[in-house]
Amino acid sequence: QMHTSESGGGSVQPGESLRLSCLVSGSSLSNYAIVWFRQAPGKEREGVACLGITDDSTYNADSVKGRFTISRENAKNTAYLQMNNLTPEDTAVYYCAADMWTVKCTSRSMDTIGSQYPYWGQGTQVTVAS
């Protein structure tokens, strides 16, 4: 059975960077699209970045465009979320999800994955504060 687990979070100051990792176990990452989600206290979970199965399709939420980059390293079964120029609004628990059907990333496809994904990990906390 496939599982995803997140790591790399921490506490940083505004303007700094972090790189999150998503380890896929129980299956090969190359067969899946990857979506990063986040959930801030009192808010709904939101999709922030998506990388399609063939890597030709990416999608970033407007709130992170130009600052966050999603990538993968299939040989390590690991996907990444590089987060630059962090702001306090980025404070949240970050989760990743793997989906074997998503070739083209869109806002709708991220919402669908988020509503149906059954293998959520513990997430990794990102805190941005002065």
Tell me what you see in this structure.
The chain is 8% helix and 44% strand. The chain is mainly beta. The strands form two sheets. A six-stranded mixed beta sheet has the order 2-10-9-4-5-6, covered by helices on one side. Strand 7 and strand 8 form a beta hairpin. It is globular. The termini are far apart. The model has no long low-confidence stretch (mean pLDDT 95).
Entry summary:
This protein is mainly beta and 130 residues long.
Report helical residue fraction.
under 10%
Global morphology: globular
Report how far apart the termini are: 41 Å
- How large is the count of helical segments? 1
- Describe the oligomeric state of these chains in a short phrase: single chain
**Uncertain spans, ≥5 residues at pLDDT below 50?**
none
Mean pLDDT: 95
- Give the neighbour order of strands across the main sheet: 2-10-9-4-5-6
Question: What is the count of β-strands?
Answer: 10
Sketch the topology as an H/E string, one letter per element.
EEEEEEEEEHE
What portion of residues belong to β-strands? 35-45%
Using the CA coordinates, give the radius of gyration: 13 Å
Structural class: mainly beta
How is the main sheet built? 6 strands, mixed
Write the layout of secondary structure elements.
Blueprint: E1 3-7, E2 10-12, E3 18-25, E4 33-39, E5 46-51, E6 58-60, E7 68-73, E8 78-83, E9 92-99, H1 107-116, E10 124-128
Parallel strand pairs: 2-10
Antiparallel strand pairs: 1-3, 3-8, 4-5, 4-9, 5-6, 7-8, 9-10
List keywords for this structure.
single chain, 130 residues, mainly beta, six-stranded mixed sheet, four-stranded antiparallel sheet, 1 helix, 10 strands, 44% strand
